[in-house]
Amino acid sequence: MNLAEYNKSVDDFSDGLFRFLLKNCKDKEKSRDLVQDTFEKLWLNHKNVEFEKVKSYLFTVAYHTLVDLVRREKKFTDFSNVDAKNYSHNEQYSDMQQILHQAIDLLPADQKSVVLLRDYEGYSYEEIAEITGLSESQVKVYIFRARTFLKNYIGKVETLV
Fold first, then answer.
1. Is it true that domain 84-160 has CATH number 1.10.10.10?
2. CA torsion sign, 15 to 74 to 149 to 156?
3. pTM, to two decimals
4. Whole-angstrom distance, CA of residue 143 vs CA of residue 151
5. Which of 44, 42, 64, 65 is nearest to 54 (CA)?
6. Chain centroid to CA 112
7. How far apart are CA 139 and CA 154, in angstroms?
8. Which residue intervals of the chain are DSSP H helices?
9. Which of 7, 25, 81, 106 is at 20 to 30 A from 152, Cα to Cα?
10. What is the distance between the alpha carbons of residues 28 and 106, in angstroms, rounded to a whole number?
């Protein structure tokens, strides 16, 4: 990858990386730092990265950098023992987007990342597996579990409207 291709990748993918990281860590400054760290790692490794695969490389590095940050801050939560019914509600509320964001924040980090990559960024299961380092079947399982949790948390759409 040369300098022009590097600059093009910054222009093309920095906003998408920022959105992905912001959805996960909920801190603009940390998200900006993570984007900067990701592009720094790309620059340090630019000779080994093909321009055609730079998007996948960037999201992979961003994901792993985010996981490292979460581990450093020890904010990883085990939701396997949590009863989803405790997090559901039956209030009448019309701002579905806010409720969805609250529900997404309750997801474990792995499930949150894969569902955001799939539903917000539009990646295929195969691409998500490549980015996260998980198997394709594990990606499907995490997305299924995340969507099931979101469905149980939100409940019926008719009750929200």
1. yes
2. negative
3. 0.55
4. 12
5. 42
6. 6
7. 22
8. 3-25, 28-44, 54-73, 96-105, 109-115, 125-132, 136-154, 157-160
9. 25
10. 19
Q: What is the mean pLDDT of each run of 10 residues along the chain (161 residues)?
A: 89 91 88 92 89 90 88 65 62 68 88 90 91 92 92 69 52
The H helix count followed by the E strand count for the chain is 8, 0
Enumerate the domain spans of the chain: 3-73, 84-160
Give the Cα separation of 133 and 67 in Å (integer): 12
Q: In Å, how far from its chain's centre is CA 92?
A: 29
Whether CATH 3.40.720 fits 3-73: no
Q: Which two structure tokens, joined as six digits, stand for 15? A: 């906003």
What gap in Å lies between CA 58 and CA 21, rounded to an integer?
12
Structure tokens that stand for 146 in this block: 């995340």
Taking only Cα atoms into account, the Rg of the chain, rounded to an integer number of angstroms, comes to 17
Token readout for 68 is 């490292």
CB 35 within 8 A of CB 62: yes
List the structure tokens of 2. Answer: 């040369």
Determine contact, residues 118/53, Cβ cutoff 8 Å.
no
